[in-house]
Amino acid sequence: MDAKERESSMEAANQSSIYINIVIGVIVGIVGVFLRFAYDSRMLSIISWAILAVGTILACKAVFRILNAK
């Protein structure tokens, strides 16, 4: 990998949209964890697990975009 390719890879990995997606995923995950332990209801527990899963997927997707920046 030459210097030009490394520079373009760094630019792609440092896009602010990627880091905004990570922050959104973490916030959604925190909301899911809070709802999971805030109340004791089967339906709310299922919904909170779904919210937590969505937050995890969003954050992981952004991290994999950073790793795949070539």
TrEMBL record:
**What organism does this protein naturally occur in?**
Pedobacter montanisoli
| Name of the protein described by the UniProt record | AtpZ/AtpI family protein
Which UniProt key words apply to this protein?
Answer: Membrane, Transmembrane, Transmembrane helix
Segments crossing the lipid bilayer: 18-39, 46-67
